[in-house]
């Protein structure tokens, strides 16, 4: 059994801390289909799932609360050309769930060359963003004077 040290990923990603914690504790998690999680920008992420052999109408993506669910169900078709002697390409149904951090939204999804790309963005509401508070001091006449009036971007 392999063990991976995910601690370097904690310092370089924002929004997937709970996901990495779950991955640390999920040694026996199913490995199908394989996937990657990438950070593509300061608040942008991409989940890439290898779904070779699945078409767009055989896949579904659902985002509910803080969970992203990707499902795939292969439609059974009979091969008219003959019988299959060896089937190494997995075509079994799957369901893969990802726990998303607060304010992480699904931006879009695309199927390209057997890879399903799901782009995510973390959009923090203005009310939750940090802001600078000006500090006032009293001058000799007893009136308040603003020392600094900056707003954080």
Folded structure, characterized:
With 153 residues, the protein is mostly beta strands. It has a single domain, classed as Sandwich (Immunoglobulin-like), CATH 2.60.40.790. 10% of the residues lie in helices and 37% in strands. The chain contains 2 helices and 9 strands. It has helices at residues 7-12, 17-25, and strands at residues 35-39, 44-50, 59-64, 67-72, 94-99, 104-112, 115-122, 135-138, 144-148. The strands form 3 sheets. It has a 4-stranded antiparallel β-sheet, with no helix packed on it. A hairpin with a 5-residue loop joins strand 8 (135-138) and strand 9.
Describe the structure concisely.
With 153 residues, the protein is mainly β. It contains 2 helices and 9 strands; from the N terminus they run H-H-E-E-E-E-E-E-E-E-E. The protein has a 4-stranded antiparallel sheet, with no helix packed on it.
Sum up the structure in keywords:
single chain; 153 residues; mainly beta; Immunoglobulin-like; 3-stranded antiparallel β-sheet; elongated
Enumerate the strands of the largest sheet in spatial order, edge to edge or round the barrel: 1-2-7-6
Level-1 CATH class name: Mainly Beta
User: What is the overall shape?
Assistant: elongated
Indicate the proportion of strand residues: 35-45%
Structure classification: mainly beta
Secondary-structure topology with pairs:
Elements: H1 7-12, H2 17-25, E1 35-39, E2 44-50, E3 59-64, E4 67-72, E5 94-99, E6 104-112, E7 115-122, E8 135-138, E9 144-148
Antiparallel strand pairs: 1-2, 2-7, 3-4, 4-5, 6-7, 8-9
């Amino acid at each position: 059994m392999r063990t991976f040290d995910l601690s370097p990923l904690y310092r370089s990603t924002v929004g997937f801390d709970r996901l990495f914690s779950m991955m640390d504790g999920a040694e026996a998690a199913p490995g199908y289909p394989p996937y990657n999680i990438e950070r593509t920008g300061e608040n942008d992420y991409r989940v890439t799932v290898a779904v070779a052999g699945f078409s767009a109408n055989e896949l579904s993506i659902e985002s509910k609360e803080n969970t992203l669910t990707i499902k795939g169900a292969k439609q059974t078709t009979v091969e008219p050309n003959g019988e299959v002697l060896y089937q190494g390409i997995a075509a079994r149904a799957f369901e893969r769930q990802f726990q998303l951090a607060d304010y992480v939204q699904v931006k879009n999804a695309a199927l390209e060359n057997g890879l399903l790309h799901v782009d995510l963005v973390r959009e923090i509401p203005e009310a939750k963003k940090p802001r600078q508070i000006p500090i006032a001091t009293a001058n000799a006449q007893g009136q308040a004077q603003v020392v600094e009036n900056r707003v954080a971007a």
